[in-house]
Structure formats: structure tokens, C-alpha cells
Amino acid sequence: MSPNPHGTAFTHSPGRTVAFQPPGGHARAGSGTASVEIVVPVYNEERALPGCLRTLHARLTEGFPFPWRITVADNASTDGTLTVARSLAEELPGVDAVHLERKGRGLALRIVWGCSDADIVAYMDVDLSTGLDGLLPLVAPLATGHSDIAIGSRLALGARTVRGPRREFVSRCYNGIIRLTHGVRFTDAQCGFKAARTEVLRSLLKVTRDDAWFFDTELLLLAEHNGLRVHEVPVDWVEDVDTRVDVVSTATDDLKGLWRMARLKASGAARVELPRRPAPAAEHPDAILAPPTGRGVLSWEVGCFIAIGIASTIGQRCCTGCCAAGGSPLPPTWCRC
């Protein structure tokens, strides 16, 4: 049984301490100074797990230029997933398996990421729907310190996806709602392919509350709200129809989560203490800089709230006018302003 900062018990494979594996391929041992832990959260995935781990392990061994470790986070599976995970951990160097007593992808990531000793933590879905060619572009800007969080995007320019129209429609609608209600700049909150610098992530994890699928959105909303730099990677993504996601239930929970996050930000409780990067400075030693303007910058979120308020007022006036004219087809209750 391992201690963790979130109060949920989890266990490692018995008697194992898994070290980071050296950079793969032709990379020199010291070429990648940042260590990377890749978490694969699973629930009842005994069929898919072996193919996932062997494929991922081979790709990392062949050419990943950073020290790495894979951790399978089994969250309360009821089939043989844990047995399969521990067997593969014995077989493949650099693979660990942990077991959580409660179900939830968000819970698994919050706990395992929060206890990681890696410089960078990442996760990917067990079905490997996201092409692994995107892994190095995901991690590299974090290793250099340029960005704080990196996400794969199926909706960014250059991404290529193979999926059914229903899932495409739901994904675009959901991400559109996020941009409309929270004014975010990222394009895809729910792609199961993300990474973050542990240094900044730990403070965000203390504020997250969702244990399930909304965890990704919650984390990204907190990151943007606190001024972190989010890097997007256009990915290749192929749908695996053997999924554990209940679309209707997940969509309902996501909408509730967006409302909760809006209230959290409005109350000021979404602000967290984070290590700040230095202010931008000219690289050229003889650069002639423009004088500071001293102007404040109106945030996009404030602009959105103002626009929504204006639109609501106009809509209310139009509704009142139509009802007063007596020719409105709207239900009477809509006109009680």
C-alpha cells in the first residue's frame, strides 16, 4: 500500500521498484535530461492491454530520447486486467502496475501523476487510438521548458481522424461549448493524449475534483485560467469502437462540470500558486526596444461575459416587445421578464 496526497489507497506490483529506462535508439544516455512517466489508465481492459504495452514499449525502446517509465493504473477492474498488468510488468523492463480500489480515469491520473518522481508525466488511452508519432512532439516542448502542458488535438489544423459521424458531432459540439462558455484557446479537451511538467502540475491537481472523464477538461481550464502555456499537437486518431465511455452520461456530467468550473473561477478559488516563468526578454544584445505602453489587457473571459450579458439583455428586450405586441408564438412563461 502506497501513501498518496489524495487519500485513496493504491498498491504497486509486489516487491517491485521500477527504474526509468535509458533513452532508446541512437540517443546518447545523457541526451534527454528530463525523465518521462507515461501512465495508461485501465478499467476492464484485459484484452487490449497486452497489445498496448508491447507496442508502446517497443516504440520507446527503439527511439524515445528521454529516460522513460510506463505505469499501468488499474482503477478497480473486475476482470483479469490487474493480473495481466502485473504479468506484463514482470516481462517488460520499465513497466510498473498499480491498483486503485476506486474506479475513475481522473482519479487514477490524479493519484499516479501526483506521486510521480518524473520531470514530465503523460498519459494515453489503452486503445492507442492516437498515433504514437505524436508522442515526441508532445513531450519535447515540456522538456525544453517552453510549455507547461501539451495536448493532442483531433480538431487542430493538420490533425487526421478516422471516426464515425456521431462521435465527430459530439466532440465538435462539446469543444465548441467549452470555447463559448469559457473563452479557451485549446481546440480539443478530451483527446486521451496529454503531458505536463510535474513542477506546475502538482498545484493544479490539488484543485481538481473530478474523478472521471471531465478531469481532462477541468485540468485544462485551470491551466489556462492560471496563465500556463498549453501546447497543441495535431494528431492522427483512429476510433476504436470497443470503448468504456457512456456518451450520454458523460456529456451530462461534462456540462455540470463546466458550470462548476465557471463558478469556481468567478469565486477566485481557481487561482493557484505556480512557479512563474521569466518575463519575455530580447535575445539580441543590441535590440532597441519599444517603450512600455502601460495599457491593461482585457482578458478574453471578461470580454465573453460582457458579450453574453449584452446578448441576454437584447434577447430579453426583444422577447418583451414581441409579447407586448400580442403576436408572439412564444409560451407565456417565456415572456415573464
Structure summary:
38% of the residues lie in helices and 15% in strands.
Q: Radius of gyration, rounded?
A: 23 Å
CATH first level of the largest domain: which class? Alpha Beta
Counting helices, strands and paired strands, the structural category is alpha/beta
Catalogue the unreliable spans: 327-337
Largest sheet: 8 strands, mixed
**Termini Cα gap:** 58 Å
CATH homologous superfamily identity of the largest domain:
Spore Coat Polysaccharide Biosynthesis Protein SpsA, Chain A
Strand content: 5-15%
* 3D shape: globular
Helix content: 25-40%
**Strand count:** 10
The SSE string, one letter per element, is EEHEHEHEHEEHEHHEEHH
Strand order in space, largest sheet:
1-4-3-2-5-8-6-9
Describe this structure in words.
The protein has 337 residues and is of the alpha/beta class. It has two domains: 10-267, Alpha-Beta Complex (Spore Coat Polysaccharide Biosynthesis Protein SpsA, Chain A), CATH 3.90.550; 300-335. The protein is built from nine helices and ten strands. The chain has helices at 49-63, 81-91, 105-114, 135-143, 165-182, 198-205, 215-225, 247-267, 300-325, and strands at residues 10-12, 36-42, 68-75, 95-100, 120-124, 149-153, 160-162, 193-197, 230-234, 236-238. Strands 1-4-3-2-5-8-6-9 form an eight-stranded mixed sheet, with helices on both faces. A two-stranded parallel ribbon has the order 7-10. Helix 7 packs parallel to helix 8. The longest helix is centred in the last third of the chain and has 26 residues, at 300-325. It is globular. The N and C termini lie far apart (58 Å).
